[in-house]
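Changelog-adjacent note: as of this version, every example in the card shows the full chain rather than a window. The one below runs 87 residues end to end.
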Amino acid sequence: MAVSSLSQAASSGVIHFRGEIVEGGCQWAPASADVAVTCSQQGKPVTQTLALNSLNGITLYSDSTVQTRVQYLDAQHKLAVLQVTYQ
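Full-length structure tokens:
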């Protein structure tokens, strides 16, 4: 998965919200082989570092608050779209 594709995905797109936003979304900071994810929990920032190749199907919190899905755009798995679902 290319880091540049994650960076580009973070700067564009459309987000639709239904319901009430209690806490803001997470900040995703990609690096060469991993990504630092910082989310607010009870008003305090919590950071987790995850390997880029392990992002598909992750649930960041035990209560299923944040889930991820990776869709690869090429057969070599160099380009991908990371979908993040907040519940």
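Structural remarks: The helical segments are 3-10.
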